[in-house]
Amino acid sequence: MPFTVHKVIKEAHEDGIWSVACGRRGNKVVTGSVDDTVRVWNADSMSLMHTLEGHQLGVISVDISPNGSYAVSTSLDSQIRIWDLMSHSLVKALEAGPGGVPSSSRLGANRDNQVGSVKAWSVVFSPDGRQISTGTHDGNINCWAVETGEKDRTLETRGKFVMSLAYSPNGMLLASGAENGSIHIFDVPTGKLLHSLPGHSMAIRSMTFSPDSQLLITASDDRRINIYDVHHANCLSTLAGHQSWVLSVAFSPDTTHFASGSSDKRVKVWDINSRQCIHTFDTHTDQVWGVAYNEDGSRLVSVSDDRSIAVYNVYSV
C-alpha cells in the first residue's frame, strides 16, 4: 500500500483549521477555521471554490450531507449554519442557545480556552441526511430536523461536555464522546441509551464507526486510540503511538485502515486487522485537528493549526 503526499495547500485559511469533511458525493471538501469562515474545495484539484461567511467566531466543526448537497457548520458563536453546496448560499441559521465567548476574548487557536458554555460543538449529519446532531457543553445531544430547522429531541448523557459525535453508517446508532472520557451509544429510532462505556481517562476528541457499523474507534487526549465492538460493548484494542493528544480519527471506506491526527503534528495510518501503525506523515508543523477520507478511500485529507491542508495518496493494493 503506497503512501505519498499528493498536495499541500499552505495558507488555506487565514488562521488555524479546526475541521474537515469530504463529501461522499459531489466531489467536494469542506473546511472550518478559526478565521470564522467555511471554505469549499474541489476534491480533485483542491482549488478553492467558495468561502462561506457569516459565523461571528471560529468554526469548530463541519460536515457534508450524504447526498453531497449541503454542508453544516458549528461555531463558538453557538450558531448552526446549513449551507447549499450547489449555490454556495446559506439555507438556515439555527440558534443553538446562549454560549460562546465575546470576540474581544478570543485566544487564537486554542479551542479549549474558548469553550464558555457553547450549545453546539461537534456536528454530524445523520446517514439519511434528514437530521443533524450537535454535542453541547452541558452533556446533551441535540437533534435537529434539516428541513424545518426545529429541534426534534434532546438525548441526555448525564455526563460532561460532549466533544465528539458519530453516527453508525447504517443509521441505527449515535455515539458520543465526552470531556471526562466517557462514551455513550444511543439507539437512533428510540432515543434509548444502549451502552455507557468507560472509554478513556481524558477527553474524547473524535470518533468514527467502521463502514459495516460493527466497530467504533475513539481518539483521546490520553494519547490512546480505542477500538470497540459496538454490539458487545467491549474494548477490543487500545493503540498507542502518538506522542500527544489524539485529536481526530477517520475510517477508510475501503474498511482496511483508518487514520488519526494528533497534537504531535503527525498523521498516522493504521491497519485495522493487525492494529498496527503502517505509515506516519510528518507534513504539518502544528497540531492536526481533522482527518477525512474521500469517497473511495484512495485519498486522505488533513487540516492543522498551521493553516494548511494536506492531501495524501493511500491506495490499497
The structure class reads mainly beta
Could you tell me the radius of gyration in angstroms? 17 Å
Provide the CATH top-level class. Mainly Beta
Helix segment count? 0
Q: Mind describing the biggest β-sheet?
A: 4 strands, antiparallel
* Overall outline: globular
Total number of distinct structural domains:
1
Please, what is the average pLDDT?
91
What is the CATH homology-level superfamily?
Answer: YVTN repeat-like/Quinoprotein amine dehydrogenase
The ordered string of helix (H) and strand (E) elements is EEEEEEEEEEEEEEEEEEEEEEEEEEEE
Q: What is the CATH topology assignment?
A: Methylamine Dehydrogenase, Chain H
Largest sheet strand order: 1-28-27-26
Percent of residues in beta strands: over 45%
| Terminal-residue CA separation | 5 Å
Give the helix proportion (percent range). under 10%
Provide the low-confidence segments as ranges: 99-109
CATH architecture: 7 Propeller
Number of strands: 28
Protein name: Ski complex subunit Rec14
Organism: Polyrhizophydium stewartii
Keywords: Repeat, WD repeat
InterPro entries: SKI8, WD40/YVTN_repeat-like_dom_sf, WD40_PAC1, WD40_repeat_CS, WD40_repeat_dom_sf, WD40_rpt
